[in-house]
């Protein structure tokens, strides 16, 4: 096997792994918003709706 083919194959596998990791992390369930600052974790269950 030619060394160039091996290098291209390794780079291709790395790119497939990288894209798969990005897709997996975007589909994984998240708590809150994408910023990760924690301000989206507010508990709104105790707020009663306006009955007007």
Note the main sheet: none
Helix content: 40-55%
Quantity of strands, as a count: 0
Mean pLDDT level: 79
Q: What structural category arises from helix and sheet content?
A: mainly alpha
Oligomeric state of the chains present here: single chain
- Assess the beta-strand content as a share of residues: under 5%
Strand and helix map with partners:
Elements: H1 3-27
Could you walk me through the main structural features you see in this protein, from its secondary elements to its overall organization?
The protein is mostly helical and 52 residues long. It has a domain at 1-27. The protein contains 1 helix and no strands. The chain has one helix at 3-27. The mean pLDDT is 79.
Short description:
This protein has one helix at 3-27.
Keywords:
52 residues; mainly alpha; 48% helix
